[in-house]
Amino acid sequence: MEQQVKFKTVGREMVEKAGINVEELLDLLVRNASAELTTYYYYTILRVNCSGLEGEGIKEIVEDARIEDRNHFEALVPRIYELGGKLPQSMVDFHNISACAPANLPGDPRNIRQMLEVLLKAEQCAVRGYTHICNMTMGKDHRTYDLALAILHEEIEHEAWFQELLGNGSSGHFLRQGGQNSPYVSKFLPTR
C-alpha cells in the first residue's frame, strides 16, 4: 500500500525513534479502519434482517455494535493522517484491504444463530487486530496505543455479547449507561 509523507511531524519522529516501523503501523491502521467501515456497512444489512421474535431480540445489541464500529472508524482516521498516512482514493480498494473478512449475511438470513456466528467472527477478528496494534505500540507510541486500547475494550465487549447470545456463558452485559455508545472511544471523537 502506498503511503505518502508530505511533512514529518515530531509526533511521527518520536514514534520512529521509539523503534516502530511507522509504515507498517500505518498499514495496520488503514486495514483496521477498512474493517471498521465495512463492518458498519455489513452490520447495517444484518440488522435490517433481524426480524421475527428472535431477530427483534438481538436487534438492539447489533445496533450498539454497528454504531460503535462506525465510531472506531471515525477515531482511527485522524491518527492515520497524523502519522503521515492516508486512506485509499477508491472505496473498492479500501474495502478489499480490510483486516477482516466481510460480515456477510448467512446463507439463510432468517437463521439468527448463523447470524450471531457471523457477528462473533467479525468481533474476534477485531480483537486480534487491536491486540496486535497494542502489543506493537505499548510503551512506544502512546497516542496510538491509547486509541487501540480504547477500541480493544469495546471489541472485547462486543465479542462477549455475541458469545452470551450464542449461549456460551454470560458477558455480564448491561445496557450502556444513558444509552450512550462508545464509552471507551468517545474521548477520541469530536463533540457536537
UniProtKB/TrEMBL annotation:
Species of provenance: Sulfurifustis variabilis
Protein keywords: Iron, Iron storage, Metal-binding
Gene Ontology molecular function: ferric iron binding; ferroxidase activity; heme binding
CDD domains: DPSL
Gene Ontology CC terms: cytosol
Domain annotation Ferritin/DPS: ranges: 27-168
Membrane-traversing stretches: none
Superkingdom assignment: Bacteria
Database matches in Pfam families: Ferritin
Record Gene3D superfamilies: 1.20.1260.10
Entry protein name: DNA polymerase
Record flagged with keyword S-adenosyl-L-methionine: no
Binding locations of Fe cation: 36, 72, 123, 155, 158
Gene Ontology biological-process annotations: intracellular iron ion homeostasis
